[in-house]
Amino acid sequence: MPLTFDPQAVPVRSIDDHLPAVPPEGLTASALRERFQRVAAWQPEHVADRWWLPPAPTHASVLVPLVLRDGGITVLLTKRADHLSDHPGQISFPGGRAEPDDATVVVTALREAEEEIGLAPDFVQVLGTLPTYTTVTGYVVTPVVALVEPGFLLRIDPLEVAEVFEVPLAHLMTPAHHRRHAVGEGDEAREFLSMPWHTQAVDGSPQCHFIWGATAAMLRNFYRFLSA
Predict the structure, then answer these.
(1) CA–CA separation, 48 vs 97, rounded Å?
(2) Which pLDDT score is estimated for 158?
(3) Which residues on neighbouring strands pair with residue 146, listed in sequence order?
(4) Rounded to whole angstroms, how far apart are CA atoms 72 and 147?
(5) Which of 126, 135, 212, 226 lies 20 to 30 A from 45 at CA?
């Protein structure tokens, strides 16, 4: 069954500061478009939560929204509502399970993003997809990467989402911010990544958005994709 531990309490085993960051010139809109058009050999680093693979997974899509801000591209993320049965309170991309009427994984991602946070498809330019990732709760998730033009207005569904925030793409594509954790030892070890984003709350107090698990794994795969 899914894990119930507190990931922030798990010690950091290592930090990947030996790996190079994706350079700034690789994080522009034109460079991202070119990368999705270019064929390059690469392998995803993470494909599933190691500790539990379900017998009958559910297909889902998430939108990886890259917002074109003047100060640099940001990644729009959500904090899931605490009352949800799957991944409550965790940081995630907008998205969800595929519906029978969804013609493609892209349709699922765009529909879910509009339903969850009110992101209108008119502001979204899809670049492509990344390899699927299978979560501990049994979802086979396709990340759909897209550029998002500024000027959009969000309408958050409080039944699904508690908060929406943005993190600089450059921060997430710098492995010095990628931390490795493990619960247990040897063959029983349960490994996961985290990429904490430290900022300030509205009242000025320190705030940490703890990006970990499937979301961090998909971001790490995105790093590998851009580095290829």
Answers:
(1) 17
(2) 87
(3) 65, 126
(4) 12
(5) 126
Q: What is the mean pLDDT of the segment spanning 179-202?
A: 86
In which residue are the tokens 């907008």 written?
Answer: 94
Q: Residue written as tokens 């930090």?
A: 15
Residue 143's domain comprises 15-227
How many structural domains comprise the chain?
Answer: 1
In a domain, 188, yes or no: yes
What is the enclosing helix (H) or strand (E) of 172?
helix 169-172
Neighbouring-strand partners of residue 167: 75
| CATH number of the domain that residue 126 is part of | 3.90.79.10
Identity of the amino acid at 151: G
Establish if 7 belongs to a structural domain.
no
* 104-118 core/surface letters (b: 16 or more CB in 10 A; e: else): ebbbbbbbbbbebbb
Q: Quick one: which of 211, 210, 208 has its CA closest to 222? A: 211
Model confidence at 2, pLDDT cuts 50, 70, 90, reads: very low
Q: How confident is the model at residue 23 (pLDDT cuts 50, 70, 90)?
A: very high
Nearby residues of 167 by Cβ (< 8 Å), 6 or more positions away: 74, 75, 77, 197, 209, 211
State yes or no: pLDDT of 52 exceeds 80. Answer: no
Q: In this structure, which amino acid lies at residue 201?
A: A
Tokens of 49: 């939560």
Q: How far apart are CA 28 and CA 4, in angstroms?
A: 38
Residues, the chain: 228
In a domain, 105, yes or no: yes
Residue keyed to tokens 């908060």: 163
Whether 192 contacts 185, CB under 8 Å? no
| Distance from C-alpha of 144 to C-alpha of 63, rounded to nearest angstrom | 5
Query: Quick check: is 136 in a domain?
Result: yes
